[in-house]
Design a protein that fits this description.
alpha/beta, ten-stranded mixed sheet, two-stranded antiparallel sheet, 39% helix
């Protein structure tokens, strides 16, 4: 068994591979085996890999399984203690891998971790998709240390300490292979979006820990598959977020949160139409609500299994406040202004 397997899921990403795979190979090969799992690309990705990157192992998938099942299919063919799921649009840095591996080796209670995610377009600013680690508010809205809604912070070292988080970004996620499969892997039905939050939340419910380790940092393009503002992205985010809540919320919280979300989701739909004139996102939110209602009971068995695995009644990284209230009413748009974060576990060393 190999120590670390870096697995890059690719679909028609020839240009991204050509630009960013060299840094992964240059800065990771001594510590890890690098795989590219190809989701039945129709561009010249496979030809590029064979010609320019023969040292990279290739897993050929017979169709485009999406992000979630694409990784499930690929990781079944990988034998390693740690998986590192890495987007093809990530530029890694010198010694980026070492802090992640060393931390996981020393802390067996930690199931997964992520590096600090910075923007490749502004390397002194966090990147939207994961910044310096993810959290959820009481109604299931995700936010990050370094990014709340559309406010992305400058990185001035304010979060340069290891911290326990609720979810690690799927753009650069290191996870123990045993924990990955014990929790059931990524939920293939999600296809894409929220699937890593769902997996990490299930791990936290099982009593496992998730960390961000800013000593390691990478640069991310972001939005390569479905750019922000794409109605399909909006649809998947809303549908999958509701589904994740249905699976993971305790019985004592489920009905209350779902009632609030019914109101807030439709409010968001009308706001995006009336204030932004965005008919596509308006329709996408309505379709997402209908889609969730249709398939909700397909997840009854999943919900039962998740609740039976629960060893944590209170997860500190699932906040007791509304991030909507904090952001829009209180004007607290930076993570360091949120009062809860001092209660989370940190490793300053």
């Amino acid at each position: 068994m190999k120590k670390v397997a870096i697995v890059i899921l690719n679909w028609n990403g020839q240009k991204m591979l050509q630009q960013y795979l060299p840094t992964v190979l240059q800065y990771s090969r001594e510590e890890a085996v690098v795989y590219v799992a190809d989701n039945a690309s129709t561009d010249d990705s496979l030809e590029l890999l064979a010609k320019d990157f023969p040292e990279c192992k290739v897993i050929r998938l017979e169709k485009n399984w999406g992000f979630a099942e694409g990784y499930n299919q690929a990781l079944r063919q990988v034998d390693a203690e740690y998986y590192l799921l890495l987007n093809s649009d990530i530029e890694v840095t010198h010694h980026w891998l070492t802090p992640l591996v060393e931390f996981m080796d020393v802390h067996p209670e930690v199931a997964a971790c992520q590096p600090k995610l910075l923007s490749i377009f502004d390397k002194d600013r966090f990147e939207y998709a994961g910044a310096s680690g993810g959290f959820l508010d009481r109604l299931g809205y995700p936010f990050c240390r370094g990014r709340i809604f559309d406010t992305v912070e400058q990185d001035d070292g304010q979060y340069d300490y290891a911290m326990e988080i609720l979810w690690a970004t799927g753009a650069a996620l290191m996870i123990r292979s045993k924990d990955y499969w014990d929790a059931g892997g990524l939920d293939a039905r999600f296809f894409a979006h929220n699937e890593e939050i769902d997996l990490c939340w299930r791990l936290r419910i099982r009593g496992r820990k998730i960390y961000c380790l800013p000593e390691s940092y990478v640069y991310h393009v972001g939005g390569g598959t479905l750019p922000k503002g794409n109605p399909m992205k909006t649809f998947l985010n809303f549908r999958n977020n509701l589904t994740m809540l249905y699976k993971c919320l305790p019985d004592s919280e489920l009905n209350r949160v779902m009632r609030w979300r019914w109101f807030l989701d439709y409010l968001a739909a009308w706001q995006t139409l009336l204030m932004n004139g965005n008919w596509g996102d308006f329709c996408a939110i309505y379709r997402a609500r209908r889609a969730f209602k249709r398939w909700r009971h397909d997840f009854d068995t999943d919900r039962s299994a998740v609740q039976q695995s629960r060893v944590c009644d209170v997860i500190p990284e699932q906040c007791s406040f509304s991030i909507l209230w904090q952001y829009y009413v209180k004007g607290r748009k930076h993570f360091q202004n949120l009062v809860f974060h001092s209660n989370c576990t940190t490793f300053a060393d």
